[in-house]
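Supplementary Methods S3. Complex input for the F3P-bound model.
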Amino acid sequence: QRRSGNYSPSFWNADYMLSLNSDYKDERHMRRAGELIVQVKMLMEKEADPVVQLELIDDLQKLSLSHHFEKEINEILFNASTMYDHKNKERDLYSTALAFRLLRQHGFQVPQEVFECFKNDKGEFKGSLSNDTKGLLQLYEASFLLTEGERTLELATEFATKFLQENEKLNDADDDTHLMSCVRHSLDIPIHWRIQRPNASWWIHSYKRRTNMNPFVLELAKLDFNIFQAQYQQELKQDLRWWKNTCIAEKLPFARDRLVESYFWSTGIVQPRQLEIARITLAKVIALITTLDDIYDVYGTLEELELFTKAIKRWDISSIDQLPYYMQLCFLTINNFVDDTAYDVLKEKDINIIPCLRKSWVDLAEAYLVEAKWFYSGYKPNLEEYLNNAWISVSGPAVLCHVFFQVTDSITRETVESLFKYHDLVRYSSTLLRLADDLGTSLVSRGDVPKSIQCYMNDNNASEEEARRHVRWLIAETWKEMNVEMVSVDSPFCKDFIACAADMGRMAQYMYHNGDGHGMQNSQIHQQMTDFLFQQWL
Ligand code: F3P
Ligand code: MN
Ligand code: MN
Ligand code: MN
Ligand code: MN
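Predicted complex, serialized as structure tokens:
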């Protein structure tokens, strides 16, 4: 008697998706976008008020337009960083916090001491700030750029959260509802933890309603969204054809058929437009990982799984006869995929990455087997022991390994070694993925091993709510470390890869925010995916 995950079939209509043919592939839309980009650049240049300049940058980032303006943004921020005198006490909270956040996001060093002037003799934030909702919101957002030990910024999160929550409750209908909707959105997930592109829609809606919005910016935001969407549809179609060809969904009906969700992950993790091969490849990786995960978590017997893991470790295609059919199919699909992917990289970049890609699958399979053994023996690891394996079993390193070779221009032996020693960047990013996944998926009983929530409950005799609070705290702690890695000057990794790693954490927090967005779906995430992939802006 085999177990079942009771998963629903795919939530999407493949024929519909394969028939998509957006008009926004057309050259004339690109031309219009080009014109608008020129307009917005003029706007950035002409703006005399430095705070308004920063606000514009903030808007462009939220609307997912900042990639068009990297040079301009850096110039403005560079100037802001030189003007920034943290001893000057005449600053207001709003603009100080806004500048602080943008500067830190872009790797400029700004000390937490810029907030000293907003504290009283006891070292607490001044009570008089508690009504300044606009300033508090910026303080709140800025505080998430903290690193380990920055006590002022920790206090800032606590202080701002407390009063934002209170102000939100007090607020009645005739207050500034635009500001209040931003407050609620930020309290839900702060901007620094939010995935940019899949959230752009929310900001377009919000921007549209704003009194001082700029029509060029709005038009560009909608147009850019539609242009990206047209490209996404083409990429998704390629993935769909490949997926159909593998026959996995048909031959392994116990496994989740989640190609569209996998592609959606991929749009969040690999955001630069030109990295389309990386996105297409990554969607395949995630779809295959989902299949493999269900083999280990749900369908395989322990005996089969031990054989399977041995076969993957040897990677000996000629000796798979001893495996059950469904494992042969899965293994050969992964093998074909690895060979194809490696071939593309060999062609483009002159290096053979077959051993690297295989290793990432081997490490994943071994981590899966550890969990399978725990499950079958009824063993309950403590949280630390669980997490030491679970950041690998969530597939973060496997995902990032495939991403790495696609997005890195000059691959050196040294960076490859850092990658496979599972550099801290990989570890923190994967840890965020694991913790977010556990918050979203561990309640549903699918015969899994105990996840972080249950481990913490077992270890501490704690309630589920306490355990969830602890896991959320661990996420915040992990972000502090991520913040260091993201702007580290001696990182072995290129900017694009670092962004992908951070965005994997963010995408996880987005996908699992209202429950299991990948395996089960809920109406919110389903709507978000539909709007993002299939609904044009008019
Ligand atoms: C492997 C899976 C996931 C983990 C998420 C990883 C992605 C999308 C790169 C989706 F398919 O699901 P699941 O919650 O069952 O993983 P778990 O490790 O908890 O069994
Ligand atoms: Mn929410
Ligand atoms: Mn699973
Ligand atoms: Mn699993
Ligand atoms: Mn899970």
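The CA atoms of residues 130 and 522 lie 36 Å apart. The chain has 24 helices and no strands.
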